[in-house]
Amino acid sequence: MKNYKEEIAKAIAGNLPDMELSEIEEAIEIPQDSTMGDYAFPCFKLAKIMRKAPPLIAKGIAEDIAGNPLFEKVEQVKAYVNMFISKEEYTESVMEEAIDEDNFGKTDLGHDRTVIVEYSSPNIAKPFHIGHIRSTVIGNSLYKIYDALGFKVVRLNHIGDYGTQFGKMICAYRHWGNKEDVVREPITTLLGYYTKFHVEVESHPELDDEAREAFTKLEHGEKEEVELWKWFREESLKEFKRVYDMLDIQFDDFDGESFYSDKMQCFIDELKDKGILKKSEGAQIVDLSEFDLPPALITKSDGSTLYCTRDIATAVYRKEHYDFYKNIYVVASQQNLYFQQWMKVVQLLGYDWVKDCVHVPFGLVSLEEGTMSTRHGRVVFLEDVLNKAVEKTKEIIQEKNPGADPETIDDVAKEVGIGAVVFQELSNNKIKDYVFKWDKVLNFDGETGPYVQYTHARCASVIRKAGKDVVAKAEKLDIDYSYLKSDSAFELIKLLHAFPGVVVEAGEKYEPSIVTRHVIDIAQAYNRFYHDEHILTENEDEKTAKVALTLAAKNGIKNGLALLGIKSPDRM
Ligand code: ARG
């Protein structure tokens, strides 16, 4: 696609001898209100260098470029040069890219460099709750975005599968455990054992010693303990994978904390050698007071390692193993301080590449009262939320469209219901806390997933009705662009033009909601076009042009939703 800001910068550069081309390009604005032009150049900062009143500078530029074929019209308004682009040429350059479904929105910024995205990372034998969904869907979207930007992305799930709690779990299982229950409902059952342990230990403190002993044996690789732990891990993973399947989310590996349990000693030694490690009441710490941070705990007084110890080992391993360009951690903002601490330790070890480790934090989700009845006490399971979303969506579809095909309704309800939850998760700026409400998530007319998907299905329906011949012509862009000059058509075209840049921005800011916002904008613009204009007209050329724009809008929506990890059904 033609870079219009660059073209415009070249066109006005002659009037601005003291400015670099890139500076001019950066200063060019896209007015909110398109009656002020498709692009505008503000001159008020130039008074000093040019020793001229800004409106006069603007006037000079406007007069100079008025005849340039790039523009349909150029106006000087106060200190601004407002430029209206020649629509046909612009539209042609946008349509050439937007018509190509496989590539629209992709760029090759990455040059195959490796980016790690670590996301989801639930804890074994603990519920995968609604809070975990954020890490899972934000991370999955960042993976898709970086993939579209031409990076090689490694998707890691840093499972919480290590630590002294597994000693307690083993001990609890030995006392009160039952194999069938674990297999049937692993997480709830194991969680139950863990809770029981904490109740029982109050009156039987010897349980604590037993648990500690079990963990030590686990750490030393004793067969029985290792087998039990492995089995807990496998059963829990099976349950997690059910949720990942529902969301259609994959990982390249599930090596979590336990994977690093034998990779810590060397850097503990290194910390010691470099004189960074301090003893404190039997524990070993790194004092970070100089950086205004609490100390990082490296080993406990009984010698056992911690979450932090494993994260340091993990980062070093990843650098050696993947030589990453970026190593992204999608982890809740509650761990902000913790991430600063361990990253500081890595920096103290002398590893400058720690600057390429990025913590991408996000805020909390809470559920509106009455959103879910809970199966087990107060914890809401993600799987239940997704199932409920699908169920409710099916009801809405049946109500809206009593003739919905019973053969496909379940598949559609799944794509729409799950898509709605994911879309909602990715709608807000990720750092904000928010409240999950069904009315908001499943509103087919609001700024929601179902609304955007519905618009996609509307495009698909227009395309079906247009017939093969028209579509074939439209796909070849064998069209007369003069039919796409109305305001509503051109607003849509401008949004399509911006789409690849939006993907870049979302990647740079680690913010999928920028893509979410943009697909809503495209969907709204298409609906305006659909209502304002007669698309399937008698005039073949006009029809072909408008169907081509429909195809382009469909591609923008579909590829945008795909970057969020959401499907685009052709019928709803
Ligand atoms: N398992 C952790 C939790 O649920 C998240 C892990 C985050 N990743 C990391 N490298 N520390 O809180």
UniProtKB/TrEMBL annotation:
Gene3D superfamilies: Arginyl tRNA synthetase N-terminal domain, HUPs, Isoleucyl-tRNA Synthetase, Domain 1. Pfam families: Arg_tRNA_synt_N, DALR_1, tRNA-synt_1d. The keyword Lyase does not apply. It is found in: Cytoplasm. Residues 2-85 form the Arginyl tRNA synthetase N-terminal domain. It is an enzyme of class 6 (ligase). One of its GO terms (molecular function) is arginine-tRNA ligase activity. A motif ('HIGH' region) lies at residues 122-132. Residues 452-572 form the DALR anticodon binding domain. Keywords: Aminoacyl-tRNA synthetase, ATP-binding, Cytoplasm, Ligase, Nucleotide-binding, Protein biosynthesis. Its EC number is 6.1.1.19. It comes from the Bacteria. One of its GO terms (cellular component) is cytoplasm. Belongs to the class-I aminoacyl-tRNA synthetase family. NCBIfam families: argS. This is Arginine--tRNA ligase. It comes from Aminicella lysinilytica. The gene is argS.
